[in-house]
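User: Can you predict the 3D structure for this chain?
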Amino acid sequence: MAETLREEKSPEQRVFGEAFSLNNGVADEATQKVYFEERVASVVEGKTTWLSRTMDGERGIVADLYKGRKIVATLHFDYDVLLTSVYTTNEGGSFGDNALCDEVTFDNAVAEAEKFAGNLS
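Assistant: Here is the predicted structure, written as structure tokens:
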């Protein structure tokens, strides 16, 4: 019986797939198109999914974490300080009215957002 290893995706891969890398920037148009098609379909299906709003913007990168077709967290990576903040929306609140974590590493921000989403019903 052959044994296979299941490779865990890095936080960067979970958020951006192969469409963007903090080190290498934006991928080619074909890769970006596949990324957005797959992610939008996953959002429509109600899966917990990261979907980028911007890739390689001037001041940073923004991505939303969807669960049940709703945005549950918004991640902002700031190029100026190379740190990441995550915002959530309180029940009945306005969009992004609660800081989940502020100016932490990208990996920590992704982990906190995914943990938060996992705790939602």
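The chain has one domain: 11-119. The chain has three helices and seven strands.
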